[in-house]
Amino acid sequence: KAQEPILPCLPPNGSDDRIPRISKETLLAVLDGQYSDRISQQRIVDCRFDYEYDGGHIDGAVKSNNQLLFVNNLFDSPIDGRVILVFYCEYSVLRAPKMAQYVRSRDRTRNIEEYPNLTYPDVYVLDGGYSAFFPKYQDRCSPPYYITMKNKQHSRARRQGLERLRARR
């Protein structure tokens, strides 16, 4: 039987990816250990481009903007116990939902014989992304800065990153 979500989720936002969204307050509660009695581990995944991550990210987040590499690592060495995966990008509109959906799709394929069971049933997207989290909780970001995707100093890296993103569609 499919497991119920551990984290409180926001109402569906009309996106077609069907990945549940969590609030920045819920993510903060996760970071503060308020769900440690129900989860073995959390993996917070920053799906932004390298320069955005390097300019500031949520404490404990891992950088991953390569779907295939991330998924291969995730399934080559599965994490024991109940694990939550929280994905975010600048606004959590494209890159994070796309990565989360890719993880869910690969998980479904790997567990086709065990439907509806999944290796990672608790996949979430941070509603509003880093742009919503940073202004309120910049003390929980390392370093405590915010480099936007459209930062002019990184226009070449942005263009290359967007080309890679489009190529994966």
TrEMBL record:
GO biological process: cell division; G2/M transition of mitotic cell cycle; positive regulation of G2/M transition of mitotic cell cycle; positive regulation of G2/MI transition of meiotic cell cycle
Pfam families: Rhodanese
GO MF, one annotated term: protein tyrosine phosphatase activity
Enzyme Commission code(s) on record: 3.1.3.48
A GO-annotated cellular component: nucleus
Domain Rhodanese intervals: 38-142
Transmembrane feature ranges: none
Catalysed reactions, as listed in the record: O-phospho-L-tyrosyl-[protein] + H2O = L-tyrosyl-[protein] + phosphate
Stored SMART domains: RHOD (SM00450)
Superkingdom, natural source: Eukaryota
Keyword annotations: Cell cycle, Cell division, Hydrolase, Mitosis, Protein phosphatase
Membership in a protein family: Belongs to the MPI phosphatase family.
PANTHER family linked: M-PHASE INDUCER PHOSPHATASE DUAL SPECIFICITY PHOSPHATASE CDC25, PROTEIN-TYROSINE-PHOSPHATASE
Name of the protein: M-phase inducer phosphatase
Origin organism lineage: Eukaryota, Fungi, Dikarya, Ascomycota, Pezizomycotina
